[in-house]
Specification:
The chain contains 5 helices and 4 strands; from the N terminus they run ααββαααββ. α1 packs antiparallel against α2. It is an alpha+beta fold and about 210 residues long. It has one domain. A 4-stranded antiparallel beta sheet has the order 2-1-3-4. The mean pLDDT is about 80. The relative contact order is 0.19.
Length: about 210
């Protein structure tokens, strides 16, 4: 009888211990899943940005350079569940550190097109609509022709601002991407995580 009573008391202690440990264990598992997924998505964003930069570097001063780069980026990121592109800068990476020019951001730090000819800014809606556009080599210039992108204005123009003549000095071009993803588990403060990535490559000479 004494042994049975002792086991019953131990059962009660075990239940209390489980009640204390279970929330911590659930939080640990949720953290592993959440941050593991974020790490994977961050690598995907970095890989996609590099792929888009390779495209724009290869095309250089061709009129559809931005279009093809955005198509590449959209295709690479479109299959990632919950990941949303907030904006893309294709910019002149002339600075020593390869960062976009200050004119490519507004006072609050959000990306914008630079009228100084330093970058082109594409919104999330514009990036998403690229796949449905019908851009062809006959377009006078990708953003200007209504058949391509509805009259977008390009400040960092492929045909005018991206030098491919090696004797004149090649242009370094950068791709800057901002993405966001909500938390899957809902167990952490805030609505999600914002991720930015950028890649700089030299325009290939012709």
């Amino acid at each position: 009888m004494r042994i049975r009573r002792r086991f019953r008391k131990d059962d009660g202690v075990a239940l209390v211990e489980m009640a204390l440990v279970a929330p911590l264990l659930a939080l640990l598992i949720a953290g592993i899943v959440e941050f593991g997924t974020l790490w994977r998505d961050n690598l995907t964003v970095a890989t996609s940005t590099r792929a888009a930069a390779r495209v724009v570097s290869n095309l250089g001063d061709e009129r559809l350079a931005d279009y093809e780069a955005l198509l590449t980026l959209d295709a690479a990121l479109g299959g990632v569940d919950g990941l949303a592109v907030e904006g893309v800068l294709i910019y002149n990476a002339a600075s020593a550190d390869g960062e976009p020019h200050v004119s490519c951001f507004d006072a609050s730090g959000d990306p914008q097109a630079s009228s100084l000819g330093e970058c082109n800014f594409y919104t999330a809606a514009q990036v998403a609509s690229m796949a449905s556009l019908s851009c062809a080599v006959t377009c006078a210039e990708f953003p200007v022709s209504p058949t391509c992108a509805g009259g977008l204005t390009v400040y960092f123009c492929p045909q005018d601002d991206r030098e491919t003549d090696q004797s004149l000095g090649n242009t370094s071009v950068g791709i800057w991407v901002r993405t966001s993803r909500p938390y899957f588990t809902g167990m952490f403060p805030g609505s999600g995580v914002t991720m930015t990535d950028q890649t700089v490559m030299r325009v290939e000479p012709r």
